[in-house]
Automatic annotation (TrEMBL):
Keyword annotations of the record: Acyltransferase, Transferase
Designated name of the protein: Ribosomal-protein-alanine N-acetyltransferase
Assigned protein family: Belongs to the acetyltransferase family. RimJ subfamily.
UniProt superkingdom: Bacteria
SUPFAM superfamilies: Acyl-CoA N-acyltransferases (Nat)
């Protein structure tokens, strides 16, 4: 499959038991179930609408949202993945805000089923996504923004060696209020090999909670 920018996306990208692949509309029911089962785990990190119009994740169909994400993929504006473990869908990872022109950058956000935390799944999925964005999509820069309270997710960017760029005050509406976020980034020239190779250095001990 190809994006509008010409980057080929294999049927899946993997490292051992962990993988990422393009989301399908048939994934909707599985993701809805995971969202319902992980309400307490996910709600502190979920984006909300400042006007109070936010739908409860998992309580509405994800098919329209998946359709929009796939349209953005075809237009070259994003890449929506699911995270898999032993072939089973256990979470979601999205590369969004893909910019070309003079920027060639993207942002990454993700969430994972709490039952699969602590297995180094999320760091590996993020590494796979960054390698795809750099090598196949040809991007120059990838960014991850994390709430400063999210200590486990800060450990993710530490393990991957992303560079701290500063704090964005009241940046995104999360869990009912405007929340500060710390910005971390990496550019292609900072990764002479691959992010996956970098991650496979020290063994990761901590697993991240969702990032938005």
């Amino acid at each position: 499959m190809f994006s509008a920018a010409g980057g080929e996306l294999p049927s899946s990208l993997g490292a051992g038991r962990i993988g990422i692949r393009l989301i399908h509309r048939r994934d909707a029911r599985t993701l809805e179930r995971l969202l319902r089962e992980n309400r307490a785990w996910l709600s502190p990190w979920e984006a909300t609408h400042p006007g109070g119009f936010s739908a409860v994740p998992g309580e509405v169909s994800l098919k329209p949202g998946i359709k929009r994400m796939l349209q953005q993929f075809r237009e070259g504006r994003g890449v929506p993945f699911v995270i898999t473990y032993d072939g089973d869908v256990v979470g979601q990872l999205s590369a969004s805000d893909i910019s070309r022109g003079a920027l060639w950058s993207a942002s990454i956000g993700y969430w994972i089923d709490s039952a699969y935390a602590g297995k180094n799944i999320t760091p590996t999925a993020v590494a796979l996504a960054i390698d795809y964005l750099f090598v196949t999509q040809g991007l120059h820069r990838v960014e991850i923004c994390i709430r400063p309270e999210n200590a486990a997710s800060l450990r993710i960017v530490e393990k991957l060696g992303l560079r701290y760029e500063g704090r964005r005050l009241r940046y995104i509406h999360i869990d009912g209020a405007w929340r500060d976020h710390d910005s971390f980034a990496v550019t292609r020239d900072e990764v002479p090999g691959s992010m996956l190779e970098r991650l496979r250095g020290p063994v990761a001990e901590a697993e991240a909670t969702p990032v938005h």
